[in-house]
Amino acid sequence: MESGKKVLVVQGGWDGHEPTLTSKRFAGMMEKHDYAVEISDTLDVFADADKLMGLDLIVACWTMGEIDPEYVKNISRAVGSGVGLAGCHGGMCDSFRNNVEWQFMTGGQWVSHPGADGIDYTVNIRHGSSPIIEGLEDFRVCSEHYYLHIDPAIEVLATTRFPIVNYYHISNRPVDIPVAWTKFWGNGRVFYNALGHHDDVFEKSPNAGIMMERGMLWAAQGKQFAIDNNLTTERFENEARMF
Hints:
The chain has eight helices and eleven strands. It is an alpha/beta fold.
């Protein structure tokens, strides 16, 4: 029997982020928890607004490219109603550089990775910020070191210290950039993990995989919470121009 809990994973864009491998990994994580997972190779799946409304979770594994603004509106409404949204690295927060609604909804946008791949750095867990990181300790990573512009409304779960590699930004004071966060979009839950330049980081740094799995589950569970608590989108809706 097919599970009543549904996840849509959308994979594509720049192949360097190994979207096929990360999508397969994330699908397996959710299937362990009895979610039925569909993997799509096209953004056109976002044209079906009713389909999106019937999901528990959308997982974005699509780096760069462009998206039809109507597709983003469909996603925004679905997430606003309670459907979760989750992703990692450039697959969610460097997906569509020209779409500000996507960036507003996801909570951040990649702007640099000084030194590119192969940078050794520490991920610092922000203890007590969320059950998603409960029991986890700081850990080392060798990967891209993501510098992001972020929404001040996010709940930060883990950070990393900049600078490590010299560039023009070092004229400023050292800063802690979020590595993982949550936020809300209407009734929907959003989770992001900046790790994932290559799929194998989730094996080489097991805590990265634990955060990803827990984050996706947390985002997916928001749909049932909205249903159980009779949450509607009425208070979020207006005719004001937003974008």
